[in-house]
């Protein structure tokens, strides 16, 4: 059997992380990407306007800045430079009040104190607790489940009594956590708005910990952007990989994974070409990987049945602008925020989430607005802004073009209400519908950008389906490396790093007994079924 030591399907950031980790171990690695360029949902260019760099998908990267996986790759040595806005985030209420999140805890505390006396000190206490446990917590979240050493560190740090209360916090809805912890709406909005970077509304179980984690990252590492555009992350990963002998082939659409005797044998491309290998790390959404590339005939029926229940996160509608002036926000503090939340107060976020849950187009959409020139002056000429906004919509298969156009206008109205003159500054505009997002990247199914719901019933050992919460699959040599795998969406590289670690472990001295244990566990988990 000749061919590369490993094939990586998909040159998104997770696939490129997996390829780099394997190449670091001396493996011959080939990355196959269906699109004409690498990057997946990490891509930027000047196609909207020649003087403006646009981030077409992901844009601000707190999880990247905090990720131990990316840190170990040393991407700063391959040209990646981070840049920060003066403030990571601001939430603008419909009445014009602003909750400001700054890397200086005293600035954030002062903003929240204006909403309710005592909330500044309460915020400081929350930040202090996070700083005590952040290293262990990020290791637990971003490394292969269950990370026993990091869990042991967390237990030693917190103690049993505090650990039990932290476990309760981890499943709380963000509205309840904010009610218990703060007196005013400012802190609640920072938490709930950040939770809605996923598909978790204020009343969703587990939304508190998501909102809290993003807030704490903003507070400690900020919401940085890559200097020159989001594509700089991909450029650094590709340069590093190629320096280590890895290859990236574009326009190489993998049509099938070849399996025999429960083991990977290679891949078949749409062109008919076959490439033999014993290891595949797949940066592909789990339903498509298992059911389309592998095929139901190679899978336990119970796994196939579980995959039918896989839940996608909500569809995204994104609008991109080249603005010929800075955004004229009414509140000067918002002018320095890289990310702006607007369109809703806390009850408005609940109403928005409820309308999405019932398949209704939100009448007052919550919008996330990005000011990338504010964060990185290289993105557009001085005095201008390269900006975008996105919001969530119901299942796009139920929506018309007129529905999407209406929602774009509602988002623009929300910005205009807080920044009169915004519309007049639009030099160029491009809308990315959910269908556009899916057409560019097959992993963004119907415009879902998170690799599947972040709901508590699809996390840890329940992601992507009930199982081990690990990269190993029921096919020996096939590893989950995409955002459908634990720990999920976000540009942190953990699914790719976990897949590579699992492949290296399988190839090590204890690889065979380890695989025996994995196979036994899978037989137990997927026994029976349809």
Please explain how this structure is put together.
By secondary structure, this protein is α/β, with parallel strands linked by helices. The chain has 18 helices and 19 strands. The protein has helices spanning 13-24, 62-66, 68-73, 105-113, 119-142, 148-170, 174-181, 185-195, 207-220, 231-243, 286-295, 301-308, 346-357, 372-375, 401-418, 434-440, 494-507, 511-525, and strands at 6-9, 29-32, 44-49, 52-55, 82-83, 87-92, 98-101, 225-226, 247-249, 254-260, 263-269, 274-276, 280-282, 315-323, 337-342, 367-371, 385-393, 426-432, 478-480. The strands form five sheets. The chain has a seven-stranded mixed sheet with strand order 7-6-15-16-17-14-18, with helices on both faces. Helix 5 (119-142) packs across helix 6 (148-170). It is globular, with a radius of gyration of 23 Å. It starts with 5 loop residues before the first strand and ends in a 5-residue tail after the last helix. The model has no long low-confidence stretch (mean pLDDT 96).
Give the end-to-end Cα distance, rounded to a whole number of Å: 36 Å
- The main sheet orders its strands as 7-6-15-16-17-14-18
Poorly predicted ranges (pLDDT <50, ≥5 residues)? none
Mean pLDDT over all positions: 96
**What is the subunit arrangement here?**
single chain
Write the layout of secondary structure elements.
Elements: E1 6-9, H1 13-24, E2 29-32, E3 44-49, E4 52-55, H2 62-66, H3 68-73, E5 82-83, E6 87-92, E7 98-101, H4 105-113, H5 119-142, H6 148-170, H7 174-181, H8 185-195, H9 207-220, E8 225-226, H10 231-243, E9 247-249, E10 254-260, E11 263-269, E12 274-276, E13 280-282, H11 286-295, H12 301-308, E14 315-323, E15 337-342, H13 346-357, E16 367-371, H14 372-375, E17 385-393, H15 401-418, E18 426-432, H16 434-440, E19 478-480, H17 494-507, H18 511-525
Parallel strand pairs: 1-2, 1-13, 2-9, 6-15, 13-19
Antiparallel strand pairs: 3-4, 5-8, 6-7, 10-11, 11-12, 14-17, 14-18, 15-16, 16-17
Helix pairs in contact: 1-10, 1-17, 4-5, 5-6, 7-8, 7-9, 8-9, 17-18
């Amino acid at each position: 059997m000749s061919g590369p030591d490993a094939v990586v399907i998909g040159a998104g950031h997770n696939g490129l992380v997996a390829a780099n980790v394997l190449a670091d171990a001396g493996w011959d690695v080939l990355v196959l990407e269906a699109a004409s360029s690498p990057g997946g949902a990490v891509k930027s260019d000047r196609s909207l306007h020649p003087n403006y760099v646009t981030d077409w998908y992901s844009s601000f990267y707190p999880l990247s800045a905090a990720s131990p996986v990316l840190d170990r790759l040393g991407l700063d040595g391959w040209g990646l430079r981070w840049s920060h806005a003066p403030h990571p985030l601001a939430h603008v209420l419909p009445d014009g009040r602003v909750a400001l999140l700054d890397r200086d805890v005293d600035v954030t505390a002062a903003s929240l104190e204006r909403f309710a006396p005592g909330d500044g000190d309460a915020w400081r206490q929350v930040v202090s607790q996070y700083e005590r446990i952040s290293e262990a917590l990020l290791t637990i979240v971003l490394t292969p489940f269950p990370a026993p050493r990091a869990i042991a560190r967390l237990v030693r740090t917190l103690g049993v009594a505090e650990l039990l209360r932290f476990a309760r916090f981890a499943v709380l809805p963000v509205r309840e956590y904010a009610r218990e912890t703060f007196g005013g709406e400012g802190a609640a909005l920072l938490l709930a708005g950040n939770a809605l970077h996923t598909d978790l509304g204020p009343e969703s179980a587990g939304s508190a910990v998501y909102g809290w984690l993003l807030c704490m990252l903003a507070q400690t590492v900020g919401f940085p952007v890559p200097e020159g555009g989001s594509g700089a992350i991909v450029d650094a990963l590709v340069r590093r990989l190629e320096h280590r002998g890895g290859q990236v082939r574009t326009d190489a659409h993998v049509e099938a994974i070849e399996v025999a005797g429960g083991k990977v044998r290679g891949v078949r491309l749409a062109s008919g070409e076959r490439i033999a290998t014993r290891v595949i790390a797949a940066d592909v959404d789990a339903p498509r990987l298992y059911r389309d590339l592998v095929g139901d005939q190679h899978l336990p029926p119970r796994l196939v049945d579980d995959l039918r229940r896989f839940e996608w996160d909500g569809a995204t509608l994104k609008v991109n602008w080249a603005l010929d002036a800075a955004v004229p926000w009414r509140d000067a503090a918002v002018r320095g925020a890289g990310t702006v939340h607007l369109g809703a107060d806390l009850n408005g976020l609940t109403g928005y989430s409820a309308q999405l849950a019932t398949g209704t187009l939100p009448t007052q959409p919550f919008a996330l607005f990005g000011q990338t020139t504010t964060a990185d002056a290289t993105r557009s000429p001085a005095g201008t802004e390269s900006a975008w906004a996105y919001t969530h919509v119901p299942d796009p298969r139920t929506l018309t073009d007129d529905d999407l156009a209406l929602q774009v206008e509602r988002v623009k109205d929300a910005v205009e209400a807080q920044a009169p003159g915004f519309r007049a500054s639009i030099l160029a505009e491009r809308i990315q519908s959910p269908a556009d997002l899916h057409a560019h990247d097959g992993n963004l199914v119907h415009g879902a950008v998170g690799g599947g719901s972040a709901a508590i019933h699809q996390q840890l050992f329940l992601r992507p389906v009930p199982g081990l919460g690990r990269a190993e699959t029921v096919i020996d040599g096939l590893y989950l490396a995409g955002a459908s795998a634990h720990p999920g969406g976000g540009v942190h590289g953990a699914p790719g790093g976990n897949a590579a670690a699992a492949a290296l472990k399988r190839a090590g001295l204890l690889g065979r007994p380890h695989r025996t244990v994995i196979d036994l566990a899978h037989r137990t988990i997927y026994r029976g079924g349809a």
